[in-house]
């Protein structure tokens, strides 16, 4: 069975084979390179990553425990399909966790951080104009990670990334079926709120970003497919 292409990730000398396999497969799920319903095999993934089955098996075990991959038995694997109920649960968790993370990071926002986030937003604009969905997804996640990571005591990012991991395949599917990306640019609203040191406006922009980017289009797609 041909396996979908898995985007490359940086690999340093200190990274173990097991960690590399896990992070590369995790990145493929989170960025939507593996779409809902995609069938996978241990052998196909091992061949594509040029690894033995052992690190692949361990990586898939971890991803299964994170609800990112379904192990069906008989050595069969699949990226989970999205349902309306699961979708609503995940996006509401996104809003709750990400607004919390923004509130906790707010006291640490600096002009240097805003400049970094502005550069990321400019890169997203370029990726959007070129319809480079891989780059757009990566930079969108990086934008939010940088913001929430400003809190030196943050503990929410692993939880937030778990939600992204479960939403990633479906969200990418939604984006690929949109004819355009018209609408308010909520990342620019976030940047304005940060420059004005306006916490309420920042949390509102984050919530609107999730609602406009995930909820509306995702609900419409699930309704159209009847899931």
TrEMBL record:
GO molecular function annotations of the record: DNA binding; DNA-binding transcription factor activity
Keywords tagged on the record: DNA-binding, Transcription, Transcription regulation
Pfam families, per database record: FCD, GntR
Residues in HTH gntR-type domain copies: 15-82
Matches recorded under SUPFAM superfamilies: GntR ligand-binding domain-like, Winged helix' DNA-binding domain
Entry annotated with the keyword Transmembrane: no
Keyword DNA-binding appears in the UniProt entry: yes
Name of protein: GntR family transcriptional regulator
């Amino acid at each position: 069975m041909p396996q979908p292409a898995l985007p490359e990730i940086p690999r340093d000398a200190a990274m173990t084979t097991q960690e590399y396999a896990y992070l590369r497969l995790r990145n493929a799920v989170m960025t939507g390179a593996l779409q809902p319903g995609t069938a996978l095999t241990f052998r196909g993934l091992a061949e594509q990553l040029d690894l033995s089955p052992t690190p692949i098996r361990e990586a898939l075990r971890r991803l299964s425990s994170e609800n990112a991959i379904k192990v069906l038995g008989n050595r069969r694997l699949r990226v989970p399909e999205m349902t309306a109920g699961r979708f609503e649960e995940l996006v509401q968790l996104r809003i709750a966790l990400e607004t919390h993370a923004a509130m906790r990071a707010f006291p640490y926002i600096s002009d240097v951080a805003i400049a970094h986030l502005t550069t990321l937003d400019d890169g997203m604009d370029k990726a959007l104009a070129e319809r480079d969905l891989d780059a757009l997804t990566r930079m969108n996640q990086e934008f939010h990670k940088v913001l929430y990571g400003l809190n030196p005591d943050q503990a929410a990012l692993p939880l937030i990334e778990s939600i992204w991991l479960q939403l990633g395949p479906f969200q990418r599917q939604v984006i690929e079926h949109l004819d355009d990306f018209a609408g308010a640019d909520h990342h620019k609203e976030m940047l304005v709120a940060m420059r004005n040191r306006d916490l309420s406006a920042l949390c509102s922009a984050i919530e609107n970003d999730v609602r406009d980017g995930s909820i509306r289009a995702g609900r419409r797609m699930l309704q159209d497919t009847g899931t």
